[in-house]
Design goal:
With 151 residues, the protein is of the alpha/beta class. The protein has a single domain, classed as 3-Layer(aba) Sandwich (Rossmann fold), CATH 3.40.50. Helix content is 28%, strand content 26%. It has three helices and eight strands. It has an eight-stranded mixed sheet with strand order 3-4-2-5-6-1-7-8, sandwiched between helices. The longest helix is centred in the C-terminal third of the chain and has 16 residues.
Length: 151
């Protein structure tokens, strides 16, 4: 059963916070699947990861490109570990408020917009459902500088 960490965006938008979270997960040795609500959003995130910092590089691709299983960071509309690799933990990053019922992931990051009352309510509902299902859950909130603080 995967552990689930909620990331409550309060200071910076997803576009600024996401690359740093992915850098940290990638450097931690995870194979990452990032799920978004549409192919358009997947392409927006793809462009973001190529351009967010000229001095950084996050190896990634989408499930719309050849060989998705080869991508260390796979951008997808599917919450499936298509890029899993034996002996490496899989991490799912949720950016669209999707609830995961079944997964092949060791860990899940659920990122939600703290300035959107509907996103907050939906995250609270997911939290309760995951907790009732027996998942290990943690919560991180942004500080004033955009860093993360475990609550």
């Amino acid at each position: 059963m995967p552990s689930i960490s909620f990331y409550h965006l309060t200071t910076t938008p997803l576009e600024r916070a996401l690359p740093k979270l992915l850098e940290r997960a990638y450097s931690g040795g995870y194979r990452i699947v990032l799920t978004a609500e549409s192919d358009v959003r997947v392409e927006q995130i793809n462009q973001l990861l190529w351009t967010y910092d000229p001095a950084s590089f996050l190896p990634h691709g989408s499930n719309n490109e050849p060989n998705p299983e080869m991508q260390p960071i796979l951008l997808s509309t599917y919450a499936e570990p298509l890029n899993s690799q034996e002996g490496v933990e899989n991490l799912l990053v949720i950016t669209d408020g999707r609830k995961i019922v079944q997964s092949g992931f060791a860990r899940i990051l659920d990122i939600f917009d703290g300035n959107d009352p509907e996103a907050i309510a939906a995250a609270r509902q997911r939290w309760g459902e995951y907790k009732n299902a027996g998942h290990e859950i943690s919560y991180f909130s942004q500080n004033d500088q955009g860093g993360w603080q475990k609550k």
